[in-house]
Amino acid sequence: MSSDNKTIKSWPKLTLYGDLNMRPFRNVWMLEEIGFGYHHVNCKPWSKRAKAVHPLGKVPALLVEDDDNQQQFVVVESAAINTFLGDMTREIESNKRTNDDTINKPSRLLVPPPATRLRAKYDSLTLFIMTELDFQALWIHRKHSDMKNVFGEAPIAVAEAKRQFDKALDAIELELNDESGYLLSSGFSACDILLSNCCFWAQQIGWLARSTSEDEPSSPVAGDTTMPKSLSPKLASYLAQCRRRKAFITANELRKEQVSERKGKEHHRSKL
After folding, report:
1. Which residues does residue 198 pair with via DSSP β-bridges, in sequence order?
2. HSE on the CB side for 150, CA within 13 Å?
3. Among 5, 60, 239, 244, which is disulfide-ready with 18 (CB 3.0 to 4.6 Å)?
4. pLDDT tier at 272 (50, 70, 90 boundaries)?
5. Cβ partners under 8 Å of residue 240, min gap 6
6. Which of 64-78, 147-161, 238-252 has the highest mean pLDDT?
7. How far apart, in whole angstroms, are the C-alpha atoms of residue 72 and residue 10?
8. Helix axes 24-34, 190-204, angle to 10 degrees
C-alpha cells in the first residue's frame, strides 16, 4: 500500500506556519483543543518561510512529519487543516482504545466520522462558512480595505461584501442547535472555530456589533460607510461560550505573546 493511503496511527510531529493575527489562529485554537504538542513558526504571507511550505506563500500551512509511515507532507487552508487534525485525532484515539482496553477516555469529537449524517452536516457548514462568510465577504474587505495598497480600493465591492456577510450570517445563525448551543447536535466542533472566528473578525472591522446593548455605538469604521450588523442574544451567547473555552483562551494568549515578540521568532509548544 502506498504511504499516501496509510492511516496515521500515532502522533506525528506537527509544525504550523503563519501569523496568529490571521487565519492560522483557527488552527492553533484547534491544536489546543486537541491537546497535543506542536511547533509554531510565526511568519507572514509571501515570506521566505511561508513560500518554503506553501506553493503560493500563503498561511496557514501545517507540516506533518509521520515517522511511522516514513512520510512528510503539508496541509494548507485553515478549514482543511482543522478537518485533518480532527480526523487524525479520532483515528489515533480509536487505535489506542483498540490496543489498550484500559483506556476509557472518550474521543474528542471535533470532527464527526466520515459517511455519517453528522459529518455531512459538518462538511456543509464548513464549506458554507468558508465560501459565504470568509471568501466572499470578510476577505473582500481585507483585500480592498486593509490591503488596498496591494490590491487597490474597491468600495462598491466592499459594500456588496458587507451585504453578503449579513445575509450569510442570518442563515448560519439559524443552524445553531438549541440543545447543544453549537452548530452540531453533538456539541462543539471544528466548524464552531470557523464561525466564531469569522464573527470576531467581523467585530474587529465594524461589520458586527460587539454587544446586544441598544447603546452599542453604531458609527461606521473609518473609510467604511456600512453600519455594524446588530448582534442577536442567541449569537451573543454562542460567541461568549466560544470565548470561554480553555483552548480559545490559551490560543488568544499565544496571539498576544506573538504581538509582543520580535517578528519571525519561533515559538515552541510542548505538552507532557
Report:
1. none
2. 9
3. 60
4. very low
5. none
6. 238-252
7. 14
8. 140
